[in-house]
Amino acid sequence: MCIDNSNLVLATRRCSVNRSLVVSAVEVMENLAFLANASNLVMYLMGFMHFSLSDSAVTVNNFMVTAFLLALLGAFLSDAFCTTYVIYLVSAVIEFLGLVILTIQARSTSLKPPPCTSSSTTCQSMTSSQAAMLFAGLYLSALGIGGIKGSLAPHGAEQFDKGTVQGRKGRSTFFNYFVFSLAGGGLIAVTFVVWIEDNKGWQWGFGSATIAILLSIVIFVAGSPLYRNKKPTGSPLTTIGKARTQTKN
């Protein structure tokens, strides 16, 4: 518990810092899981799923666009109907399930097309069930990523009281550390995890991302007793509708 009756101001400041550190640690793991796959996914689709270069690029582009568009939905839901805490937790579990599917498919030879042989001019395409598994894993991950992108940073910002000078300063500092954590997770993803994917196998690459998002869930839940959770304010569309109705009347 973040309570210190001898000095409430210092206790509040310390609590806010502790909360923000937890959120920043979660962001390292979350962005590692996201960029570990997104940065190198074209190679996986071409080399193991036998996509053409253009189809691989389109698939990765659609995956990225879907993830970032769904961030708008995640932000809307966390602000209007649920807390950022709930949206993050649900989204992280969804992304975890998507990564588990991709890891299982990458590990099992029966769930991928057979490797190309040097004597064949064309490679065997995926079956419909293999394609369904691939896209289920990708778009479950995209759904989870979107929810996380729309809720984790706001959740961190909520830990500071914007009504005080210290709270506003703390919030500004938090976003600096949050971006640093985002970059740190991305750096690990595009160096260490990509090396694992290229040299040890994609099952280990997807597995690393799966472990990272699982760790982010554990860290996030461990910080639950510290968090301040802002109550949802309802849909802004409803507020706009009421205002227009009152104006007409």
Short description:
The chain has one domain (10-116, 123-248): Growth Hormone, Chain: A.
Please provide a written account of the structure.
The longest helix is centred in the last third of the chain and has 35 residues, at 165-199. The chain has helices spanning 8-38, 41-47, 53-80, 84-107, 128-149, 152-157, 165-199, 202-222, 236-248. The protein has one domain (10-116, 123-248): Growth Hormone, Chain: A (Up-down Bundle). The model is unreliable at 1-13 (pLDDT under 50). 75% of the residues lie in helices and 0% in strands. The chain is elongated and about 70 Å long. By secondary structure, it is mostly helical. The chain starts with 7 loop residues before the first helix and ends with a helix. Helix 2 crosses helix 3, helix 3 crosses helix 5 and helix 4 runs antiparallel to helix 5 (128-149).
